[in-house]
Amino acid sequence: MARATDxxxxxxxxxxxxxxxxxxxxxxxxxxxxxxRDICAEAQGVVKHIFQANCTADKIPIIEQLRExxxxxxxxxxxxKDLHLISAGxxxxxxxxxxxVGKQASGWLKFARNRA
Length: 116
Description:
The chain is an all-alpha fold and about 120 residues long.
């Protein structure tokens, strides 16, 4: 088993976490305690689920939770764009990373289901 930090999905998710952390620091005060905090928590959860899935034998439920958390994160980032808290370009950067992590998670889930 490879270390979680060596996995491409982990590196992409960590890059996403860094990006959303930087972006949410720029949110107006009224959004920092709610939406920004929730976005950072969801991004941290994505990274956490990757680590957990890598460490367990039954990966399927954890990867499914990872995919659900990723969808929630994408929704919150879309709300941020629609509220003009982040620019379209910044949103595009987050979409590229969330799509990459999502595709890798889907592949990992398919592999895990085939092995089960």
